[in-house]
Amino acid sequence: MEMRSGDEAAFRQVYEQVFPVVMRVAFHVTYNMDVSEDICQDAFIRFFDKNMVFQTMDDAKFWLIRVTKNLAINHVKRKAREAASMEKLKQVTPTSSYKDGASELLFQETTENVRKAVSQLSEKYKTVIVLKEYAGLDYQQIGKVLNISESNVKVRVHRARKELEALLGMEN
Amino acid sequence: MCLDDQILNTYLDNELAEPWKSQVEEHLSYCSACKERFEQLKALKQTLQSAALTDEEIAPRQENVLRMISNTRFNTKRASFLRRQFKISIPAFATIAAAFVFVFVGAILHINNGSGNDFIPAAMDSAVDETNVSLVSDAGPAKTIYEYSPSLEEVLDYLDSLGYTVSVTKKGVEPFTFD
């Protein structure tokens, strides 16, 4: 199914399906909702304006994920240069659907810890873990997006989890 | 021989191909140490995924971005076309307007500064003084038909010749009578 990204009907179809994925990628790299929204907007506008031809929906999706990931990484780098990224990350107050006070507190604490840990990973591992856990891509797809081999993805996932385990105090 | 973390992670991610997948499953069925380690890795994965951005959090953002893109890209296709046309027409229009102004201003300047005297009759080129200029009133009253004043007799004769009977009275004067 060949599609053109500047075609409104095709664009809407891709948008509906891919927006949640790229929003998660942007968010779990930047951990800032407003910045993530801006990044996604930027990515989809580029997607539309470039009016590219994609052979499959997955090709369009991978293009969007790659652009979003790059924009998000660039943002984090810029913020790091401004030496303000960690302070902002500490202010993240995630929302949840939990109504019970105790479990909500536990949920927020866990969520905050996890997000903090992910943000502490090096760019190489963070990207792989975000694409794996939050974008739902498999090893082959991650390799395609990052332009690395599948076995390289496998190694990075393993090492990233090892680091996260240590950061979260879950190691044996 | 027990399984290392990388194999367990690969199995956890459902990325292990056969026959290794079956071999790992078989090993996990009897090796409690590997089973325990597998459960730890599974818990880590679940913990990571529990911190994922929810669909409810994404939905309003998705609407915002689509609204913005719709406004600037979809609904304004006609407007953008016109805008493009307008962009093209601005320089062309400006050029024409500039040329028009140039021609007009040039013409006016030419008339005023250059051979503008061509507009004035040649007779006026010579020195103008009292010898060739005089008041019209100096030449005496002009003879126009409106200024011709016939005498009363001439008027009466003229009317008589046309067959009218004319009586003439002098207003404000008592008739002279001889008693």
Structural notes for this entry:
The complex is a heterodimer of chains A (172) and B (179). The longest helix of chain A has 25 residues, at 57-81. With 172 residues, chain A is mostly helical. In chain A, helix 1 packs across helix 6 (123-134) and helix 3 (57-81) packs across helix 7 (139-146). Helices cover 76% and strands 2% of the residues of chain A. Chain A has helices spanning 8-30, 33-50, 57-81, 85-90, 101-120, 123-134, 139-146, 150-167, and strands at residues 3-4, 53-54. Chain B is mostly helical. Chain B has a domain at 5-54. Chain B is 59% helix and 0% strand. Chain B has helices at 5-12, 20-30, 32-50, 55-74, 77-113, 152-161. Chain B is rod-shaped. The N and C termini of chain B lie far apart (178 Å). The relative contact order of chain B is 0.03. At the A-B interface, helix 1, helix 2, helix 5, helix 6 and helix 8 of A face helix 1, helix 3 and helix 4 of B.
List its traits.
heterodimer; A: 172 residues; Butyryl-CoA Dehydrogenase, subunit A, domain 3; two-stranded antiparallel sheet; B: 179 residues; mainly alpha
